[in-house]
Design a protein that fits this description.
The chain is 40% helix and 10% strand. The protein is an alpha+beta fold.
């Protein structure tokens, strides 16, 4: 299977920007058509399913959609929250509605989407006054070069740097350090995680994007108690069991583990 075809972010990103402009992980290349070739072993005493890599992605997308239909927050934040709870949807829901959402978002290293400004109104990314100052030159604290303010970008934490510095930073984290789920803001001491939409917007190299997508998918499988990659070399399948137990299963490649 050619993963380069299964994870086409670039086309979906352009469509997303033309539609509603709401950056979310689900609408940026992970929405795949459900496959009809998924192998199910329901007649056995220990039921399990065999997933291909693209079916794993679809399963992840479905989990995000299911939770997001209830919590009604940006899908990028939903995915980070789910990962924080090792994709335990019930545990996330319980914490989300326990009355201390600010603490929950803080522990998950994201800025609350319900944050309000000092006037009590929902915070906005850019006001008219900020737009008028966009042509002013500011200094990027990473490269120390003067940049037009509109060329600076950042996260909801408010830290902004120039696009080339962001791109270099994210590329280094993904390729050199193998980070996907836990890339923090480039600002020193800031622990807010970079969301998927920001990564896909700032990273232009397709190989880096694919590496990031592989890291996200791999983390999803490794965090989920009901999922496990087939250990056979170059297999690429994952097995999903109906309940947690130590039983042998046989992959589509014929490997039993």
């Amino acid at each position: 299977m050619d993963l380069d075809d299964d994870f086409d972010y670039e086309q979906d990103m352009s469509e997303e920007e033309e539609s509603d402009g709401d950056d979310n992980f689900v609408d940026m290349g992970l929405e795949t058509e459900p496959s009809t070739t998924q192998e199910k072993h329901e007649s056995e005493e220990f039921p399990y399913e065999i997933f291909t890599a693209d079916q794993i992605v679809q399963f992840m997308v479905d989990c995000i959609k299911e939770v997001n239909a209830v919590v009604q927050i940006p899908s990028t934040i939903t995915r980070i929250l789910l990962n924080h709870f090792k994709w335990d949807k019930e545990k996330l829901m319980e914490r989300y509605y326990d009355g201390d959402q600010e603490r929950l978002f803080s522990e998950a290293h994201v800025v609350s989407p319900h944050r309000k400004d000092s006037s009590g109104r929902p915070a906005k990314k850019m006001t008219r006054s900020a737009s008028a100052a966009a042509s002013q030159e500011v200094t990027c604290e990473i490269c120390c070069f003067g940049k037009v303010a509109v060329e600076m970008t950042g996260l909801e934490c408010g830290h902004k740097f120039c696009v080339p510095c962001w791109t270099d930073y994210l590329t280094s984290k993904i390729i050199d350090e193998g980070q996907g789920q836990t890339i923090s803001c480039a600002a020193f001491g800031c622990d807010i995680y970079v969301d998927d939409a920001t990564v896909m917007k700032l990273v232009k190299d397709r190989k880096v994007k694919l590496k990031y997508q592989h890291l996200i998918t791999n983390s999803f499988v490794e965090c989920n108690r009901l999922l496990r990659w087939c250990p056979a070399p170059d297999c690429g399948h994952a097995v999903k069991v109906g309940y947690f137990d130590c039983r042998p299963v046989t992959c589509a490649c014929g490997h039993t583990f």
